[in-house]
Design a protein that fits this description.
There is one protein chain. The chain is α/β, with parallel strands linked by helices. It folds into two domains: about 10-130 and about 285-300, Aspartate/ornithine carbamoyltransferase (Rossmann fold, 3-Layer(aba) Sandwich), CATH 3.40.50; about 135-285, Aspartate/ornithine carbamoyltransferase (Rossmann fold, 3-Layer(aba) Sandwich). It has helices at about 15-25, 55-65, 85-95, 110-120, 135-150, 165-175, 205-210, 235-240, 245-250, 270-275, 280-300; strands spanning about 45-50, 70-75, 100-105, 120-130, 155-160, 180-185, 200-205, 215-220, 255-260. Helix 4 links the parallel strand 3 (about 100-105) and strand 4. Helix 1 packs across helix 11 (about 280-300), helix 2 (about 55-65) crosses helix 11 (about 280-300) and helix 3 packs across helix 4. About 45% of the residues are buried.
Length: about 300
């Protein structure tokens, strides 16, 4: 693997499978009485978050601690960033403190790429603007493989606010690398410019796509990024692009439902769907810890073998 994980496009097929296979080994830790390994003892991982996050920040923190790394949680609120400190100066401060890895979430697309030029440690993109979120795509792929037993040939529908979704872009790139076929389903106003160049197909008709989909991934409507009329009303959006029990029944028998969270229940996904046996939403959160452990382990060179400390 490369020194950084900035984009799902950074991963070759072999790299991606290595992460998934390593995560599978590490997932067994959750069943042990002591859920820690000594592999990253003495290493320092900084969680550098300029946007609010619950799942991703906590998931990376748990992952690093289970590998025995020292963890520093840095939030832009209450830090020198709120006094006007630049990203570069923040990076230089972290570099002086000896950070071995920086996990960064930033409102500006491309910020992790800039950070990678300024520090010697590894940089992991935990979400940059509307650009990418590669570890989310990895945990989604891990969950699909766990539930369905394969990735090659899977038909995956990614539905909703693609325009503002870093998850959608990373999933399209990674799943294409791993041999799945992705269809984006959204109103024209919620598709990005240039989407025709992405390695996927596009549809505006959810009902036509569902019967042919092994996986349907619902995206959150990101109202906080919207500054215009992207759809007439929330009710109309839900009627056209929301996943309810009727639509879920259109999926093939083994079809599963995913969502990267947080959810707008009753908008893009009905509560009865989110809580159904077909839903993998809680599994995705659990799998996120294993996948992020694998990413940190592989980027930082591991140390003792995974089975050490068993």
């Amino acid at each position: 693997m490369n020194r950084h994980l900035l984009s799902a496009a950074d991963l070759s097929r072999d790299d991606a499978l290595l992460v998934l296979d390593t995560a599978e080994e590490l997932a067994h830790l959750a069943d042990r009485p002591i859920k820690k390994l000594p592999t990253l003892r003495g290493r320092t991982v900084v969680n550098l978050f300029f946007e609010d996050s619950t799942r991703t920040r906590t998931s990376f923190e748990v992952a690093a601690k289970r590998l025995s790394a020292d963890v520093i949680n840095f939030s832009a609120k209450g830090s020198s960033v709120s006094k006007g400190e630049s990203l570069k100066d923040t990076a230089l401060t972290l570099e002086a403190m000896g950070a071995d890895a920086v996990v960064v979430r930033h409102w500006a697309s491309g910020a992790p790429h800039r950070l990678a030029h300024w520090i010697r440690g590894s940089v992991v993109n935990a979400g940059d603007g509307t650009h990418e979120h590669p570890t989310q795509a990895l945990l989604d792929a891990f969950t699909m493989r766990q539930r369905l037993g394969r990735l090659v040939g899977l038909k995956v529908a990614v539905v909703g606010d693609v325009l503002h979704s870093r998850v959608a872009r990373s999933n399209v790139l990674l799943l294409e690398t791993l041999g799945a076929e992705v269809t984006l389903v959204a109103p024209p106003t919620l598709l990005p410019v240039g989407v025709e160049a992405w390695p996927c197909s596009v549809s505006f008709d959810l009902d036509a796509v569902l019967p042919k989909s092994d996986v349907v991934m619902m995206l959150r409507v990101q109202r906080e990024r919207m500054h215009g009329g992207f759809f007439p009303t929330t009710r109309e959006y839900s009627r056209r692009y929301g996943l309810d029990a009727r639509r879920m029944a259109m999926l093939p028998d083994e079809g599963i439902v995913m969502h990267p969270g947080p959810m707008n229940r009753g908008v893009e996904i009905a509560a009865e769907v989110a809580d159904s046996v077909r839903s993998t939403i809680v599994e995705q959160v659990a799998n996120g810890v294993s996948v992020r452990m694998a990413v940190l382990y592989l980027l930082l060179g591991g140390g003792p073998e995974i089975e050490a400390g068993a």
